[in-house]
Specification:
alpha+beta, six-stranded antiparallel sheet, 31% strand
Length: 255
């Protein structure tokens, strides 16, 4: 009687189970609802940076940022990839600044302000001029990601990636997580079409002196936008189970 044959028959099953546990999360088509005060682009890619950028939207009025009509943009069927979700932002350096959104692949979701986001402040001053062609492109974003990955950022940058609470020794600032999208008494009005448990998010270059990085000028607020553009990223595997809790319907397809 041989005893090894039944064992060998189950080895492939065990191997496949192990592969399922360690394999990266496969690419999914993602539905996105996002707004920014003032400008953004987003995309997916490896640690070296996004392979494509979508959006490249500059919002020049309050209605374009917050309102149900011209407000948050919706994108259906955006191709994702294992690695990171990147969100690139810049502002007009006036009144308020922040980014808010959710990214859903049907079964899981990433929200701005959830645990796991990092930001790199590039120190490259990009201003909003209502001409999207002037925004950062894939090449410029990838070049800045390379600096962040090696903690080689220059003046006005965060030097490397930082999270909520800061980053490695030598980095500057932290991810700023603001109010939930369910509080009209904060820095921002409630934004339709975006989940109520998404949080506004930005960069705080000096948490010791800046108590409200979502506002510009005044005591305790941001004093300029010299740190921008900003690059946010989060590992795609940090998506959480989706909950159907929205403020309206999608407005547009694959802009």
């Amino acid at each position: 009687m041989t005893l090894h044959q039944p064992v060998s028959r189950f080895l492939p099953i065990a191997a496949f189970a192990l592969l399922a546990l360690v394999a990266p999360r496969p690419a999914q088509a993602v539905d996105v609802v996002i707004t920014c005060d003032n400008a953004y682009a987003f995309g997916y890619g490896p640690a070296s940076g996004p392979t494509t950028l979508f959006g490249n939207v500059e919002n020049c009025t309050a209605a374009e940022i917050f309102s149900c009509g011209p407000g948050p943009e919706s994108y259906l069927g955006i191709p994702s990839s294992p690695g990171y979700l990147y969100v690139v932002t810049w502002s007009d350096g006036a009144t308020t600044q922040g980014v808010l959104g959710n990214f859903t692949d049907g079964s899981t979701i990433v929200r701005t302000g959830q645990a796991g986001w990092q930001v790199y402040a590039t120190g490259q001053d990009v201003d909003v001029d209502c001409n999207a062609a002037t925004g950062p492109n894939v090449a410029s974003v990838t070049a800045q990601v390379a600096l962040a990955n090696t903690m080689s950022g220059g003046a006005n940058s965060s030097v490397g990636w930082v999270s909520a609470g800061g980053g490695p020794l030598g980095t500057v600032g932290e991810v700023a997580n603001g109010e939930l999208n369910d509080n009209a008494a904060g820095n921002f009005p409630i934004v339709c079409n975006i989940l109520s448990n998404a949080r506004w998010m930005w960069y705080n270059p000096d948490p010791n002196t800046i108590t409200n990085p979502f506002r510009t000028f005044g005591a305790g607020n941001m004093q300029n936008d010299a740190n921008e553009f900003l690059i946010f990223r989060i590992p795609s595997e940090l998506a959480t189970p989706a909950v159907r809790n929205t403020w309206g319907q999608v407005k547009m397809l694959y802009r």
